[in-house]
Amino acid sequence: MSYQSHYFKEVREAQRRSYSPYSNFKVGAYLKAKDGRTFYGTNVENAAYSMCICAERASLVAAISAGYQPGDFESITVTVDSEVPSSPCGECRQVLKELCDDDMPVYMTNHKGDMIESTVKELLPYGFSGKDLNK
Ligand code: THU
């Protein structure tokens, strides 16, 4: 499924909820399941910096906690306030690899409405997965 303009409105709402008093870098994620249900994620920071939770992972954790399973997801849209849309960090790419189809679209946007489209596999080629553990 391709990017739809309302994803932008939704992901910006997710971003608005960011708790990022340390970096002031607000990130929003909008995860869409194949059955149409959607989940917001935003970054949640902590005075112990290493405990910061990224928006992408927050949305996936919300979905799995609601009963969704790996492979149930159709797309994820991410937004930041940067000149060029930024892409998910390495840790989030690994979690996307675990829970989403390799060909799932990842839409990266910014405050200007620029959009870069990629996929889970493009973002993490040769990624480690359960297959490597013979699972
Ligand atoms: N952040 C995300 O939410 N997603 C990413 O993929 C990269 C970074 C957050 C973590 C932290 O709260 C802030 O952005 C600055 O790194």
Automatic annotation (TrEMBL):
Domain CMP/dCMP-type deaminase: 2-131
Keyword Transport: no
EC assignment: 3.5.4.5
GO cellular component: cytosol
Catalysed reactions, as listed in the record: 2'-deoxycytidine + H2O + H(+) = 2'-deoxyuridine + NH4(+); cytidine + H2O + H(+) = uridine + NH4(+)
Positions annotated as active site in the UniProt record: E56 (proton donor)
Pfam families per UniProt: dCMP_cyt_deam_1 (PF00383)
Binding site for substrate: N43, V44, E45, N46, A47, A48, Y49
Record's keyword terms, sorted: Hydrolase, Metal-binding, Zinc
Membrane-spanning residues: none
Binding site residues for Zn(2+): C54, C89, C92
Gene3D superfamilies: Cytidine Deaminase, domain 2
Keyword RNA-binding: no
Names of required cofactors: Zn(2+)
GO biological process: nucleobase-containing small molecule metabolic process; pyrimidine-containing compound metabolic process
Molecular function via GO: cytidine deaminase activity; zinc ion binding
Recorded family membership: Belongs to the cytidine and deoxycytidylate deaminase family.
Entry function: This enzyme scavenges exogenous and endogenous cytidine and 2'-deoxycytidine for UMP synthesis.
Name listed for the protein in its UniProt record: Cytidine deaminase
Gene transcribed to yield this protein: cdd
